[in-house]
Specification:
- The protein has 92 residues and is mainly α.
- It has a domain of 36 residues.
- Helix content is 65%, strand content 0%.
- It has 4 helices and no strands.
- Helix 1 crosses helix 2.
- The N and C termini lie far apart (45 Å).
């Protein structure tokens, strides 16, 4: 499958270019790929000024690396435990 690319030009300071080149070398990829990875990683971060609690929650959730199936099982189990603890027993 062909990948669509857009060629563009940016003006970067020397320090930033050296950092980009270093990342590309360490990762064994082109500078363009290193820049793409860095931009994608930054895009996943909370917006500057977002409440610190939300940022902490986001970091915690990412660190757990749960699949959607694991998260769904956890939610079902938690719901069952809460029903049992409250003495409320409902069937689906």
């Amino acid at each position: 499958m062909a990948t669509t690319t857009v060629k563009t030009t940016y003006a970067l300071d020397v320090e930033t270019v050296r950092a980009l080149e270093g990342m590309a070398r360490r990762w064994g990829v082109s500078r363009s790929e290193a820049l793409r990875r860095t931009i994608r990683a930054a895009a996943r971060e909370p917006a500057p000024g977002a409440p610190k609690t939300l940022a902490a929650l986001g970091a915690l959730q990412r660190s757990l690396d749960l699949s959607s199936g694991s998260a769904a099982r956890w939610a079902r189990q938690t719901k069952l435990e809460r029903r049992t603890a409250s003495g409320r027993h409902e069937s689906k």
